[in-house]
Amino acid sequence: MGRVAGPFPYSPLHNLRLSPIGMVPKKDGTFRLIHHLSHPAGDSVNDYIDHKYCSVRYTPFEEALEMLEKLGSAGLPGTQECHYLVSKFTSLCDELGVPLAHDKTLGPTTKLVFLGLEIDTVAETVDWANDFQLELFTDSAGSENLGCGAIFGTHWAFLTWPESWKGACIFRDITFLELVPIAMAFSVWGKELVGKRFSLSSAVEQIQTCLSRSRPAPIDCSRLIPQTHLQYRAQELLSCSLSENTKKLYMTAVHQFNLFCHAYERNQTWPPNPNDLIHFVAYLSFKQFSSSTVKAYIAGISYFCRIRGFLDTTKSFILQKVLVGFSRMNTRVDNRKPITISILQGLISILPQVCLSNYESILFSALFCTAFFGYFRIGELVQDSKVKPGHAIQVGDVRLSTSNSVIITLRHSKTDQEGKGATITLVPASPICPIQHLNKYATLRPNSPGAFFIHLSGYPVTRYQAESVFIKAIRMLGLDTKMYKTHSFRIGAASNAWASGMSQMDIAGNGRWKSRCMYRYIRS
Question: Tell me, what CATH number does 287's domain have?
Fold first, then answer.
């Protein structure tokens, strides 16, 4: 290629390697120097370096999303916390001599293009970056006498269905037929699409959506849904039978049991040996696990036995009696203390010193009052995280009144996995009135859809943020943060109602309790 020059007609050294140097254009019009150390293939400089010392692993897109979900926000929206952290990080790099490409440094920001995909942490969406212009359209006909076609820019192509297909059952699978023009388009215009971003519009998604709807009309055998789709839908329905938290708990149970079997050199076969399960429970007893956790673990192992078609060995008589004995021996007491009216007053009064703005203190005052007077779990009021909305109440779930009441529709809860819903009515109270705090917050709240409790920037409040503000306020009040958690609002609501003489039935109704576990929330 004319890139190698020198005074030697032949190699002066037997191990001499000449690596070509090239230039490639950059987006800003300049050029990047490329030193091709992988040439010639099979006999280059890189070929003589052990792969374990030079292998490169690029972060996949899924891992980037997991990092965002795990790390969450670097600071509260509407503040300068993120800017401060970025400034401190760059200063630290300068001090340590770590080079940073400032022209490639972006942030703080809520939108980032990674591997050609734009991540929006506010809208919680992932979409193509807005710099592609190519569009590809495809469609197919279900008739044996027709075919399929594709349009790419100003070009078009079509294919008539082969004669060999006529009379075959292939025309029953419309999804397959819709994939044919896509393959044809890639075959015809593949070179033009290499290295380009483009949008693909086909009828595959519309077909699948249409087929997934239930129809009361008789089944048309000529358009049967493929069995693979039926199998996938069945798996999807089965997966939806458990909540996400229950799935995680059951997976943890199996993982813990497998670790136990490995440590004690037990057979890790299914169904589990009943003796291994009994010893597993004894092991958890020594590790001071709670009775409820152990029962949940055994329930998880039972679920996997049945879902895999195995004999459910968790139902053995001895194991069941061991669990009963575990419950009787386990005298673990929930030491979380209740939020009282006086502590709630203290929290509200200290919030201006905890929060970074007047709006934030009004926001969290309304949130804490709602949690207390509505017997709410904090996860029912705010999002689990930025990327996991959970079942937080939405702006349309709250009906405000000037002074009489506030009606909140709770569509899902820990004990209402099917989403039957419940209605909670907050009424005026003294010396703290939840109606006044909610109306005050509502007048300042940005006119934005989605979650009801949001920051001034429009970002929803997350569980982590609510717990952080709560812990800071508790600490500033001089209280023990180990004894007071956000669940103390619910404990305090039940305890306060009991002390005021409210009936057991009314307390159970207000707190949506359906069992005697209500009594565990009442503190003297």
Answer: 1.10.150.130
* CB-based contacts of 513-522 (< 8 A; 24+ apart in sequence): 514/415, 518/494, 520/334, 521/490, 521/491, 521/494, 521/495, 522/494, 522/495, 522/498
Could you give the 3-state DSSP secondary structure of residue 402? coil
Least confident range of 289-293, 352-356, 489-493: 289-293
Tell me the average pLDDT across 43-58: 72
Q: What are phi and psi of 132, to 5 degrees?
A: -95, 150
For 433-477, how does the pLDDT look when each residue is reduced to its tens digit (9 = 90+)?
A: 999 999 999 999 999 888 999 999 888 999 999 999 999 999 999
Q: Is the dihedral of CA 461, 465, 470, 476 positive or negative?
A: negative
pLDDT class of 132 with cuts at 50, 70, 90: low
Q: Are residues 194 and 268 in the same domain?
A: no
Last residue of a domain, one of 202, 229, 256: 229
Q: Please, are residues 157 and 150 in contact by the beta-carbon 8 Å criterion?
A: yes
DSSP per-residue letters across 245-305: HHHHHHHHHHHHHHHHHHHTT----SSPPHHHHHHHHHHHHHTT--HHHHHHHHHHHHHHH
Q: Report the b/e string of 218-255 with b at 16+ CB within 10 A.
A: eeeeeeebeeeeeeeeeeeeeeeeeeeeeeebbeebbe
What is the extent of the structural domain holding 309? Answer: 244-329
* Tally of domains in the chain: 3
At 254-293, the pLDDT tens digits run 999 999 998 998 887 888 999 999 999 999 988 888 888 9
Is residue 258 within 8 Å of 276, Cβ to Cβ? Answer: no
Chain center to CA of 405: 34
How long, in residues, is the chain?
524
